[in-house]
Batch of 3 targets.
Target 1
Amino acid sequence: MASITEDQRLDAVFTALSDPTRRDIVARLSAGEATVKELAERYEMSMQAVSQHIGVLERSGLVSRGRHRQTRPCRLEPAALAVAVSWIEQSRRTWAARMDRLETRLADLQQGAGR
Amino acid sequence: MASITEDQRLDAVFTALSDPTRRDIVARLSAGEATVKELAERYEMSMQAVSQHIGVLERSGLVSRGRHRQTRPCRLEPAALAVAVSWIEQSRRTWAARMDRLETRLADLQQGAGR
DNA sequence: CCCTTACTCAAGCATCTGCTTTATCAAGCG
DNA sequence: CGCTTGATAAAGCAGATGCTTGAGTAAGGG
């Protein structure tokens, strides 16, 4: 079994979001499905290039591809976005907690010096 | 003036977070400052390699470097993390709003069919 | 003063990215 | 059936990335 680690999932999501075209594709898909051709026209880019961007987004779990006639409509999978947010929030909580402790200690020190 | 666009800032932040070593550096720094040498020992990596990772994090605004004796203590700048979260939340809000509208329309259709 | 410590700069190198071009495939149309 | 449309596959290429080695610099210590 080649199960994916949490680190690899985060790698894939942040790598996918590090390109402005792919971020715009995510923003576009948050408003509804789109085909490869529609996206290619939007970015004045070849369908092959878009298809490869979709591949990156698909491997990260951010986007999935369906089938409808000859088209492969792409839709957003917001669960993968939640993975990225929760990782960031974890760091921010730790940092905020440390700041709180520092302030408490500073207040203690000032009170001690004031006596 | 070569002012940085919002897109370039997001590029830099997501690119910085796309590497597992750099994510771990961010997590480590959220618990307090660290020197290049300390990080190099932690990851069993050369100081040069760590210094380059710090450079990527610094250019993204996620980390800043100070000076203390011979060391260059690194500290987290959480404001840059907020930029990434707010971008993601924007997409999620749009998606959530679309889902609400779809549900409303579905409910309307069912009510219409029930009469 | 030399020597060590902590770190950065610069060049080199293997690998990865983003895009291109060419070729191929699957679905529908006349 | 052939032809068009929407999309993927494969190969190639310029540029970026992650790490290395070698050289250099700033701050202390003996």
Target 2
Amino acid sequence: MIQCPRGTRDFLPDELEKRRSYEGILRGVAHRFGFREIETPIFEDAELFILRSGPGVLKELYNFKDKGDRDIALRPEMTAPVIRAFVNGMGSYPKPIKVFYFGQCFRYERPQAGRYREFFQFGAEIIGSATPETDAEAIAMAASMIKSLGLKEYKIRIGHIGVLRQRIADIGVPAERTAEVLQKLDKKLYDEARPILRDIGVADADAEALFDLTETVGGTEVLDKVPGEAGTYLRELVGILGSMGVEDLEIDLGVVRGLDYYTGMVFEAEAPVLGAEKQICGGGSYTLSELFGGEKVFSTGFAIGFDRILLAMEKEGIEYEQEGIDAYVIPVSDDVRRDAAVIVSRLRGSGRSADIDIMGRKMAKALKYADSIRARYAVIVGRKELDGGCVTLRDMKTGEQREVPADDIFRGV
RNA sequence: GCUGGGAUAGUAUAGCCUGGUUAGUAUAGGGGACUGUGGAUCCCUUGACUCGAGUUCAAAUCUCGGUCCCGGCCCCA
């Protein structure tokens, strides 16, 4: 028997219906925030992702040569493709450009709880604007999405890459070693950062002050202590978010995010119920377009890990109710099967979801089946009622029955 | 890449340590009891030892390897 490749899943109808429903909720939020959907190819030139993330990504990329000897990779994320599409064809669109996307991405990693090789991301980008209002819009939408799905336990943390970068430069760390230091700080590995800083020649006191800065964590009031332009910017941002009703935020200057194209605000959201893989959302402001041959344009974006947020919801006990169908048509005997066919197609024509017994079951079994597919009504088609132009409509929940005209079954229901 | 645990019908499980009938049970699926009324009951039926190699007279059971799953690291764009 052949099974799904490692790290991939089949989504059977019950689960897919649920996923589509939640996907619909996210789409709804995006529309309400004035975003329009964009779709890009599932595979791209591998170069696109290498430009974005460095050659190190290759080991986690699903890449291959196609028959034309092109170096292709399945997309591991969607920000780079969207910015590529912007550079290729949306450069002259009115700014700001607000787009969202939903689709699967692929990474060659070891699968774990909430981590798959084929996974789904829902994300958005605001291209061509670099104001606090832009960042606020992105964070507010991410918060609204999490809330709309009904997730209760989550944290949104906001940081600013500029604060740390500025400080790191000020204390004498050369540009080419910044990433190395940031990486340690991101993990709060101060013991590993100390020897690196010492090696560079940073004074111990400066190093400790730097560590203190990454420990600037807490409610929005800690912003009072954040110096410089970044502090002013973040205070402005938090103020706007407050006006938008987004309150439960944490400030954490230790939020660094791996890549160096982030330029200012960075944020992430996590769901503690998830354990090791608890991050459900990440984003920030950045510039990428110049890497892909366009002019330099500021953007802010974020992506939600769809699989993870669903997992978190499941762990919180959020239940999804299957939709079912409106009516299940049951012919009582073989001589009325044609009449039943007329009735089911009339129901379908009028926009109801309707199904009919096609296995020649007896009524008892047919009713049981109707229940198992969550039909709201059973339409029992029998000789007796047909002679009077009627059928029996049975409410599957209450068991109540009444005779209704065969050509207008749902009048008055 | 490192590391711990695991895999028995669609699902949930018993059996494994201590090798030995036809691999048990529940539930789900199909049919019937019930020839026009479901979620109950009873009966019949379909359906499984992850794969490969080894040890043995004999392997679901012991050994080794592969695959996949669940965790913890590394990584996480």
Target 3
Amino acid sequence: MLQVQLPDGSVKEYPDNYTAIDVAKTIGERLANATLAAEVNGNVVDAMRPLEQVSNLPAGTPIPLKLITNKDPRALGVMRHSAAHIMARAVMRLYPGVGLAFGPTTGHGFYYDFDLDTKISEDDFPRIEEEMKKIIVDAEPFERIQSTRDEAIKLCGDLNQKLKVEHIQTGLADHSSLSFYRQGNFLDLCRGPHVPDAGRVTAIKLISIAGSYWKGDANNKQLQRLYGTAWFSQKDLDEYIQQVDEAKKRDHRVLGKQLGLFTISQEVGPGLVLWLPKGATIRATLEEFIKKELLKLGYTPVYSPHIGRVEMYETSGHFPYYRDAQFSPIFGHDAGALVDFWIRKLREHKEGTAVFSLDDENKLLESAKVMGAALTEYPKTGSVDAKIETLRVWEKNQERYLLKPMNCPHHVQMYASQQRSYRDLPVKLAEFGTVYRHEKTGELNGLLRVRGLTQDDAHMFCTPDQVEEEFKATLNLVKFVLGSVGLDDYRVQLSLRDSKNKSKYVGTDENWDKAEATLRKVLTEMGWAFTTMEGEAAFYGPKTDFMVRDCIGREWQLGTVQLDFNLPERFKLEYIGADNKPHRPVMIHRAPFGSMERFTGVLIEHFAGAFPLWLAPEQVRVLPISEKAYDYAASVERRFREAGFRVTTDFTSNRVNAKVRDAQLALIPYMLVVGEKEAAADTVTVRDRLEADKQLNLSVAEAIAKLQEEAAARRVRQVAKSNFRSFDSAGEEENEY
RNA sequence: GCUGCUGUAGCUCAGUGGUAGAGCGCGUCCUUGGUAAGGACGAGGUCCUGGGUUCAAAUCCCAGCAGCAGCUCCA
């Protein structure tokens, strides 16, 4: 007999081969029908497998069991995973030769990656959905099959599933036993769990098709990823679709256009933001705000140019590490680009990654001559190294500039411009530094991913003793800055080096270990919740990143605080210590907003365009009732402007109803309605955008005082909550198998 | 960069192998009104760019550019 402990604590006995469903049946048929999975000893498992098998407890121990019905959010994940199998089965029925890759669930649904020559398009969705519905109607059970590695490889090989075979041999190399799930004649390598049968999957919809790479590596084969979503009822599904539509309305690109905040012109170039007056006002207000905070914290403002010599970025490492993502260097000599290309070819030739023939070499020599670079020293018969060296010498005598991709090297030069004593440290150099990066076309996204961006950047040069304290103070600054705009749904991430691929980073293991340990210590001491991500560090050091989500749930990095032992080393920075000897400072790179572009973009979505009074580009609009009140309206506008407000007056010939509507839709925090009554008493009727029914008749002076108080306090009275945003990645599965 | 989709008026979008459409916005006039749209008239378009097919292309095909979604990347 089997002993089972139910959630109420009671222990009951059942026959040995009983499943969770069987147990449910003893309680009631309806419960059994609603049971989709089971929680056994804390793990979510199949409800249709014998409890003995799914519990890893010693025989004779009572098995703790909780039935998971469709009321339990975890059931949604299990069901979506089953839906992914059903979709894969449907696709295999419709298309011959489908290779299966991964098919996990996501926070909003599921996807499956297919290796398939025929291109699936959205027009095919109805067919696939039809096929899925047939499978659901047939309601065949999901059945788990356990196998050894060798059996699994043979089974996948027999099914001609090459990717699965490869995955078992590589990614699952340490699994001695593997599980499959069979659903009718469809068999897939899968760790489960699944719902008892296909009929339990109720409301499904295919969402989109897109490319993906096998195992997430762009060098690998490109697959077709089919996204879908599944819910327990058509009503839930409809609600979800509606939420997505709602969420899209607050997209910063949509609102940015609607509210006239910014524009991106093809003529100027993709990813290059044109801040229109209203957007620029928001940005300027944010900049002013943080400038004041920085002064309080002992930062000093600096300015640096938009370009710098390539050699400097070679020293820092930015140029070699990110060349692909940078705008091409600016060469002072016509032959500069040619010699640059030449050196790269020679290097590739040396590494054996490209062929560089004698003929090519002669052509380049000729071309260089035509361009005015004689290169008489070029050792045509010399070694590759000698050739590279000769070209490098020539290159270094020319001017080569880089559009700056980062501010750090400039600030480093400022630090190095004078001798520093330990008494001077920390030195905190702050600048709204505009940098340029040639992001790949597919990555650009409104204000969130651009090619020209302004960081609210600063670099702190500390003694090793100061690092922890300064790091903590900076983290608190970021928290304060985010809090002042009501942003509280962010995630703190400790971004570490990829321990398996250290070639992506500069510096010694010792420095890295020290830096990573410091960050971990600081975060732990502060008592903040944080997640750790390997491989997310900057090439020069680990960092603490503040991650937020956009209107459709994508995560973006905003603020960042980074610890760096390496650039001071590479630039040989020093300060004179109390021992009268030179020491190496430590750098902290930090940007609380991250970039003004991305921060503003996130902020637009955060407020759904309805900015609090202190940030609103148009804070107040005066609405004269009729022409008779025009003169008075003008005087009210003038007095508000003189009091420091961004104010306009609606002099259109519309009726006041229309003026109110326009102002309301323009998301202006306060309207001041003025007519003959107000003019006679020198008052205004204040209409609050958020509380239109609570209107106040105040004297102009009172109204100014009231609004000044609200703006000065930087009060955030409303943050546009999004249902959609509450979805998180908690329901997502790893691509384990 | 890769895969797929999209590109028509200032905006949102309909549309057809045969002379270009709506709503909103904009302009003018009438209306001078008390809290989410007063009325009339009017202007406005290289239908993304370049090729091709065709008697005829904004429509079909190809290439490019740009945007969107996903992947990859992100100092």
